[in-house]
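Query structure, 647 tokens:
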């Protein structure tokens, strides 16, 4: 018996899932996933065309599924060039009295809209956008928390053919202007007062500053309780638009729908323009086939409105799921300790079937000794999912001990750039400890070594060698197409190089070791940072850590910075224990040469560690675009690290 297997699908699930039906309809058995995947990348025109039909995509498919350009194998490929469709029409296909969206917040408030009522709200705001002069291709921006009103702005923008873009309200003014300021939105929806972690924050001055620096802005719509008219002309949410019929603008497959932004840690954030049909088809595939999302399921992913995962979970509506939104902190500080239960109480109360979280959240629950399966009835939960960074083997163990044995688990990996996943889960496959389950259908994923040869069982560069529909259309702004090609195709012409350091295993599973630009290189051997993070999170004395390389005498040493728990100290014994465990669980080459205690770990505004910024300041270099960091002030400590004695 394979001890690495933590969960297996039951016999009934093997037959009743959409993935099983899709495989069988295309001539493959439920146990022939490798063959199914091989077909999906060998004949992408047939695969994506049959997926369109199987998923019941609303729109005109046209007679051509894939138009190739031999001179530009990936960047010149065009999917469904004759198609006409609208994403909002597909996400709003339900029109009944059943709940389509449920809104929850950290204070315990609940609001729900039926499919019928949601469509009416979208129609009202769509009319308001048209009255404000928004036309097909114009940008509509939102600075809103994860509530129903934000969802309505997204769907209304898509319905009329506008391009929707968003920033989370916790971003600073400079970070927001670095992003949505690039794309000249015609209408901005913003909330002037938000609550997080029990604290109410007045964003009025910030919103006024941002609106004042977007000269193209035609209308500012203020959303939420406490919104008051500003000196700048504005309109309240309740007064925007008017009741009427919901009309959908038919769009070309490649017409833009969303603009998302990279983290911006190496310069101004790149504004990535995404294609309407590509985003819809990719995400419906991932939810319907890989995520086992069924009509009537309830899906909550803990996310802010700027992260790609917000857009990803919204697309579950296209499979008939009820979307559950949560606004606020997932862990609340109470008198006497921390309340880790908000999301898990939501699973019980709302009978949620799919819950999405992050490794950082899992790590905090583990540190707090919280066991959601003991505290709540989680019997409705079929799937638990995680994204944002690699999930450690210990976190897999915790899930199947503290949550329960019944749900499947999917660690998924892709990115903002592709609005989807290269590696993710499968309802037909066992969950193996520490492994991403399968390569995504339609995605020609591979790992290449330093020769450019595909390898199994050892690390290399994650690439994709065949075109796929959700490749970006371009980057926004002058020279956008050239900047896009430079970002993903400079290393290997017409082969997508994603920037992840990964291992593909012989059984089809995979491991992500971390970002390639953060890969360590002691003694000329490439090492992923994720392996060291996996060890660090096993120490209760550490609340977080950061790993990067520092040049020493023609080589590179590994520097480990640790953020300590309130009652802990970085002692020689603790440093020795960390090194011993890294040596035993990783390798001698992974052992940090220097360990420092630091007050904080630099993070992007989306909550991701920024190894590159720390590495740069330690080397005396300037960090570009500090506005992309949520806590840039902490870098001052890193600038002085080399003057301190390390353990």
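Result returned for the query:
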């Amino acid at each position: 018996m394979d001890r690495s297997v933590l969960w297996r699908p039951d016999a009934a699930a093997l037959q009743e899932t959409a993935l099983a039906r899709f495989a069988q309809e295309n001539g493959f058995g439920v146990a022939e996933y490798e063959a199914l995947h091989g077909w999906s990348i060998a004949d992408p025109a047939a695969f994506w065309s049959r997926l369109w039909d199987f998923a019941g995509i609303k729109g005109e498919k046209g007679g051509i599924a894939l138009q190739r350009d031999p001179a530009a194998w990936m960047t010149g490929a065009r999917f469904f060039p004759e198609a006409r469709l609208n994403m909002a029409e597909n996400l709003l296909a339900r029109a009944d009295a059943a709940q389509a969206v449920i809104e929850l917040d950290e204070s315990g408030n609940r609001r729900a809209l039926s499919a019928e009522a949601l469509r009416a709200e979208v129609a009202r705001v769509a009319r308001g956008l048209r009255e404000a002069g928004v036309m097909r291709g114009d940008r509509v921006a939102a600075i809103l928390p994860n509530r129903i009103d934000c969802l309505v702005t997204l769907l209304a923008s898509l319905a009329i053919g506008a391009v929707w873009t968003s920033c989370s309200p916790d971003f600073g003014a400079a970070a927001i202007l670095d992003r949505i300021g690039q794309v000249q939105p015609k209408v901005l929806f913003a909330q002037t007062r938000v609550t997080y972690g029990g604290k109410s924050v007045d964003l009025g001055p910030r919103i006024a500053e941002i609106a004042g620096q977007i000269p193209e802005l035609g209308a500012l719509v203020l959303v939420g309780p406490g919104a008051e008219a500003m000196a700048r002309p504005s309109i309240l949410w309740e007064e925007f638009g008017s009741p009427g019929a919901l009309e959908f603008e038919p769009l070309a497959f490649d017409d833009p729908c969303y603009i998302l932004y990279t983290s911006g840690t190496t310069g101004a954030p790149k504004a990535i323009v995404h294609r309407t049909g590509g985003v819809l088809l990719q995400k419906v595939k991932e939810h319907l086939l890989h995520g086992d999302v069924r009509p009537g399921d309830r899906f909550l992913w803990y996310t802010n409105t700027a992260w790609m995962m917000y857009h990803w979970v919204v697309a579950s509506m296209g499979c008939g799921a009820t979307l559950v939104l949560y606004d606020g902190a997932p862990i609340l500080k109470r008198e006497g300790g921390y309340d880790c239960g908000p999301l898990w109480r939501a699973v019980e109360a709302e009978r949620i079937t799919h819950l999405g979280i992050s490794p950082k959240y899992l790590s905090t629950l583990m540190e707090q000794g919280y066991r959601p399966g003991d505290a709540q009835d989680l019997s409705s939960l079929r799937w638990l999912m995680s994204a944002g960074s690699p999930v450690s083997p210990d976190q897999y163990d915790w899930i199947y001990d503290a949550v329960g044995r019944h749900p499947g688990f999917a660690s998924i990996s892709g990115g903002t750039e592709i609005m989807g996943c290269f590696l993710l889960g499968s309802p037909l496959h066992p969950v193996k400890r520490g492994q991403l389950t399968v390569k995504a259908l339609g995605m020609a994923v591979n790992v290449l070594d330093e020769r450019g040869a595909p390898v199994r069982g050892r690390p290399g560069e994650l690439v994709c060698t065949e075109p796929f529909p959700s490749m970006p259309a371009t980057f926004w702004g002058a020279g956008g197409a050239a900047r896009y090609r430079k970002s993903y195709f400079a290393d290997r012409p017409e082969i997508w190089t994603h920037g992840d350091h990964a291992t593909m295993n012989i059984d089809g599973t995979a491991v992500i070791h971390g970002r390639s630009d953060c890969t360590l290189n002691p003694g000329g051997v490439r090492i992923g940072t994720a392996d060291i993070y996996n060890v660090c999170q096993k120490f209760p004395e550490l609340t977080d850590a950061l790993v990067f390389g520092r040049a020493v005498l023609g080589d590179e040493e590994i520097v480990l910075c640790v953020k300590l728990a309130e009652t802990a100290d970085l002692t020689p014994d603790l440093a020795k224990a960390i090194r011993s465990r890294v040596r035993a669980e990783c390798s001698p080459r992974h052992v940090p040469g220097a360990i420092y205690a630091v007050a904080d770990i630099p993070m992007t505004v989306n909550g991701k560690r920024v190894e590159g910024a720390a590495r740069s300041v330690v080397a005396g270099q300037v960090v570009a675009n500090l506005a992309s960091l949520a806590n840039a002030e902490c870098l001052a400590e890193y600038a002085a690290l080399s003057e301190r004695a390390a353990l």
